[in-house]
Write a structure and sequence with these properties.
Layout: E1 23-29, H1 32-42, H2 47-50, H3 52-57, H4 67-81, E2 87-96, E3 105-116, E4 121-129, E5 135-145
Length: 147
């Protein structure tokens, strides 16, 4: 779901519908409540993520969002967009290239880079950029398509 008030229907792409070059993107606003909720779920209370003064003392403008929080949006890319409903996320390799802060607006994008017919699997190249178009991560994602 893109927000608490808006239901976003997943794409319904079957394996035979997927084509190399298909792409999708969406935006996400990073909020303090997202960071707090993620910290509560994973139990990581490193002061880099939760303490403004500490984060500033080591050169950041404020608490840094969890890398795995931002990477979770790659799951949305696969499960809601490419391929959507029939996705089964199988592998993800993520490289983090810049920090994310409360108030950042991220654009999550991806495109189908290869299709493996023998195992009904697609590979997606993904990137996340912030509001000034600085890349904050890149990913290689493998997803099965079970329909």
């Amino acid at each position: 779901m893109s927000s608490a008030h808006e239901l976003q229907v997943a794409e319904v792409l079957r394996f035979e519908d997927v084509r190399i070059g298909m792409s999708a993107s969406f935006k996400v606003n990073i909020t303090r409540s997202m960071i707090e909720a993620f910290g509560s779920i994973c139990g990581d209370f490193n002061p880099l993520h939760v303490d403004v003064e500490y984060a500033q003392s080591i050169g950041h403008t404020g608490p840094v969002a969890y890398g795995m929080l931002t990477s979770s949006f790659y799951s949305r890319l696969v499960g809601m967009h490419i391929p959507g409903k029939y996705a089964l996320l199988q592998q993800i390799e993520v490289s983090f290239t810049a920090p994310v802060y409360i108030g950042d607006v991220l654009t999550v994008s991806g495109y189908v880079s290869s299709i493996h017919e023998s195992v009904k699997q697609i590979e997606i190249k993904g990137t996340i950029t912030n509001q000034i178009e600085k890349q904050i991560s890149r990913a290689k994602i493998k997803s099965g398509v079970y329909a």
